[in-house]
Amino acid sequence: MRNLCFFIVLMGLLLLHGVHGEDPYRFFTWKITYGDIYPLGVKQRGILINGQFPGPQIDSVTNDNLIISVYNYLTEPFLISWSGLQQRRNSWQDGMAGTNCPIPPGKNMTYVLQVKDQIGSFFYFPSLAFHKAAGGFGGIRILSRPRIPVPFPAPSGDFTVLAGDWFKRDHAELGGILDRGHNLPFPDGLLINGRGWNGYMFQVDQGKTYRFRISNVGLTTSINFRIQGHKMKLVEVEGSHTLQNTYSAIDIHLGQSYSVLVTADQPPQDYYIVVSSRFTSPVLTTTAVLHYSWSTVGLSGPPPGGPTTQIDWSINQARSIRWNLSASGPRPNPQGSYHYGLIKTSRTIMLANSAPIINGKQRYAVNSVSYMPASTPLKLADYFKIPGVFNLGSIPSFPTWGNGYLQTSVMPADFRSYIEIVFQNWEETVQSWHIDGYSFFVMGMDGGQWTPASRASYNLRDTVARCTVQVYPKAWTAIYMALDNVGMWNVRSENWARQYLGQQFYLRVFSPANSWRDEIPIPKNALLCGRAAGRHTRPL
Fold first, then answer.
1. Which residues, other chains included, contact 349 with Cβ-Cβ below 8 Å and sequence gap of 6+?
2. Strands 391-392, 409-414: parallel, antiparallel or unpaired by DSSP?
3. What is the rounded CA–CA span in Å between residue 279 and residue 67?
4. Which of 97, 124, 184, 449 has its CA 20 to 30 A from that of 81?
């Protein structure tokens, strides 16, 4: 009887979320707790998933269904979001404050995701408050289906590297600093997979090739990644197979993910794996160890140096990252069969970041609008037609260059339109922008003010498609994006202090058809809060 009930519930979940029965599913049960961690040698209150910091790896294959039951044992609300997972037709599962109610303390929520038509390297993270500064993040691997060709031989091992800056202060204290209108202090160090200097080891066999999936899960700092005495062949960026250029060091900006192949072709011994901060003074550095099996020779010499504050080095490398036109993506057809550069855009949006002082406190803004969260998730307010939560058009499509102001900012957009977005950065720091629900084409980047004449420099043939892109100081970056995914999608700075203080907004991609073909209906188990509390989702 118990097995029969389980089967009925499972089938209901799959039908409820429009999941195809022929696609495999994977179950995860996560318990979110506080726990003591010592990443920089000092005891801290960390956020653990099943007792782990970082959290457990999610391994999946294209089109898998992921059913993740999250139990919140913290004393505060909690949410998880899935950086890079496109949530096709399903922004209900995005895990941002604008789409989902938080999981209350002592309660649980089950995410039902599908990694539809995706491959690649991504990560998940806690999206509420300043929880990301306490952990709760982990890697996501989406492998190609068995019959889909991959443009390189299967590696002998597949390693996840979660790297980024870290603070010794408690996440609540850091959030309090921002709430009082101040900037965060300088980070205390860098971590590799939750460990400090030489705290993590990757073991390899001589002569074999390994895949390293590297994500910058930090809060405020771009990083550079390199391995002593070894070259790295870039093969994938956030779900796109790339031309297989070889690098000795790679810049990885906030929220970005890269896959490289590394061949253990050096004399057997230990070698430094180095992560250092970019565009900071002082430069932070940490290391892990690449250990050759059976070797008894330890590390030797200082860790290899890398670029520090050089902008030109970084922008030239960024321009060298290209799409592998002949390689298959998640489907058997070549990536290059989609001729993104021949499609005419129907709309241009320009987004300019700024750092205004509002009501005597430091804030951050997009087109002068500093985002203020609503007590009711925007997606729920939109579904239930609750007035007064947000207004469409509450953020302009172009900079106003006026004084900053507070607003729950939502920009309207039409389903199936093809748009150009220009990120304009007049500040002195590198920006990193992420768009939930989408992968976009990075058309070009350069210094100064973007103008229509800048389109002459666009890469119309083989630029990479990704979900997070950097904008250099006093510079612009332009992207093309097909709005083929209905929903309420977060557009944000990946600098977590900046997004916390307002450098974000929501893009409402709308289809008037109101069809299950365009968007999965509200989940039966959706949590309801704010002015949506007490309402009903829908029958099974």
1. 397, 398, 411, 419, 420, 421, 422
2. parallel
3. 40
4. 184
